[in-house]
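In the laboratory, one determines a bound structure by crystallizing the protein with its ligand and collecting diffraction data. In a computational setting the workflow is compressed into a single prediction: the sequence and the ligand go in, and a structural description comes out. We illustrate the idea with S-adenosylmethionine.
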Amino acid sequence: MNPYETEKLVGEYLLFHYGSTEEVLPWRNGPHDALDFAVRCVTQCVDVAALPRDARALDVGCAVGRSSFELARHCGEVVGIDYSRRFIEVAGTLAADGSFLYLRTDEGAIVTPLVARVPQEVERERVQFEHGDAHALRESLGAFDVVLGANLIDRLAQPARFLAQLPRLVKQGGQLVLTSPCTWLQEFTSPEHWVGGYVENGQPRTTLAGLEAALAKDFALLATKDLPFLIREHTRKYQWSVAQASIWQRK
Ligand SMILES: C[S@@+](CC[C@H](N)C(=O)[O-])C[C@H]1O[C@@H](n2cnc3c(N)ncnc32)[C@H](O)[C@@H]1O
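The predicted complex, in structure-token form:
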């Protein structure tokens, strides 16, 4: 079964995207700079001042939607797309109702009910969520002023197919933000399709180098950033990772 369809990951991602500091990380000595990753993908990686009025944004692999809502602070239209029907159902409920009740796992079968809330000032009607496959996004999506693919490429069977669509999806002069912790795993991507994370002719091939090879014809690499993030599994267990963000401009 697709792990992103399970209630376990629905709960983990709702907490990851919408949880308060106290709900996610009550430990004083924990990595507090790794909180609010879905918000920081926008605040730290998108040049909001450069966006036109009524900008269009696309969030591919949006999960339960927090970055899509953050993009809606600056864009008149946001499309969030994910392959998990359950994630899209939950994100759609958040867009319609502004909140969603879920269970946080604390220890074994002990859970705490929590409410995920979209910040009140976000104009939720600007955001539309839909089920879709990053390998073959529908042509009728059109082109966007900003495209975000957060922690997506190393979860795709054939990331090159997603990357090949980006020139048509990003308007000339538009922004592309890709983030990845470069966690290449055979269960998601067979090694012949890895963008990086392998040795070729005795030389290490990084994910960033692979992205440059795939994108440099159509995009200029403006910057890279390290974005720590934290996914809480239960009260005493977390995944701490550092995504590498690459920020591109469509030529
Ligand atoms: C590691 S999660 C990242 C989610 C979110 N962008 C974030 O940063 O929290 C990867 C996401 O990609 C989605 N995904 C996996 N394969 C996909 C595909 N072929 N098309 C669209 N989304 C996909 C998963 O359902 C999941 O929501």
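The pocket of S-adenosylmethionine is lined by residues 4, 38, 61-63, 81-84, 87, 133-135, 150-152, 155-156 (CB under 6 Å). Keep in mind that any predicted model is a hypothesis to be tested, not a measurement.
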